[in-house]
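Quick note —
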Amino acid sequence: MTTEAVVYLVIAILSWGLGAIFDKLTLRYLDALPAFYGRTMIMIVFFLLFILTRFSKTVNDLVRAPRISLLYISLSVIVSMLGVYTYLKAMSFSDASKIVPLSSTYPLVTFIVAVLFLGESFSFNRFLGTVFVISGVYLISK
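Predicted structure written out below.
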């Protein structure tokens, strides 16, 4: 893994970790659905500001991209939004220290789907590592 990948990965991990804390704090004041809608509206504002600063490049990239990529973007948004809503709903019923680790078992889904449908290589070490991570997450959440 490159140094650049590690830096971005660490930032993502820290961002998601802190984001979960803010989600739990939000759920003290709002139910999951209004929290989900509010989160989505705020994201739209930030994304619009970002897109406006890069509008022509963004449009050019999207216009030149194969049409199937737009379908994949749309599907990614739909399943991600479903994931966020159901994560918030689960968090509204339980402790963040339990829900966050358990929701972090999604790499197993990614591993299985990537091997079965994307043709990614299966290795026993990768599988075993995934099982160990998920087992650790499960034990932490107990």
